[in-house]
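Example record

The entry below shows one chain as it appears in the dataset: sequence first, then structure tokens.
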Amino acid sequence: MTQDKIGNWGRWGDDDERGAANFITPEVLKSALGVVKKGKVYSLCLPLQLQFDGVTFAPFANRVGSVHLMSLDGGDFAAGRTPRDGRKSADDYLFLFLHGSTHIDALSHVWIDDKIYGGFSGDTVTSTGAEYCGIDKLKWIVGRGVLLDIARYKGVDVLGKSYAITPADLDGCAEQQGVDIRSGDILLIRTGCINALKTDAGAWVSKQPGIGIDTVPWIAEREVCAVGADNTTLEVQPIKKSVHVELLRNRGVYVMEMLSLDELAADKAYEFLFVAAPLRIGRATASPLNPLAIV
């Protein structure tokens, strides 16, 4: 690929497919390990079959909720199946929309002008998946995590509908919490929106609070590796200019959505070791994730 002077294209070589994950150098990683003091672990993953308004959540019309089916269970043995060596067992299937639960987007998830991150052709994302920048190229994210509890900073349980988080919000919240953002960090943002979606998804799904487009330079200047939030889109809804395009496609910054941040926020655990490993699904544009925060 040629360097087109777009964001981080070419910063780590013309063939780079990992983007801002390159900010997590061995030195950055070793420093992140030092934030663990208590040995307490938080799971930041929502239940896979989480119910929103009584149905498994599917945020957009072309997305479906997960389906869990048993292929072998106790009923088979009750119906006469003979146990092997006296041992009974169970097996199951999971059919999962990769963007429909707590997940991380690959750099091939969105594009404009027929170019994905790094300048690779959009035509390389086909019915067989993404030839370049698939989620299997990421492998892991381990580094210093920082939670900015914007809802608490604003004095509310949930930010207002279509509230666009600003750079001033990020600065003010970080100052109030006594944290800074460093190169290679994983930035998590709490809006409180996930709880509103649980009780009234219809009223909130198209009007979710999230980060506004003006936060992109703020994030880029700090060399953040990934940004995640407790909503379904990270960015404010409705979208006026795509934060996804600016972060994923232009800068190689990973996006995580539908995070569970309430427990972390309740303990005011604002700095932690962040550990997450996407499934190595070849050519996929996202992966389910069970991120861990360790303090």
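Notes for this example: The CA atoms of residues 41 and 215 lie 29 Å apart. The first strand starts at residue 41 and ends at 43.
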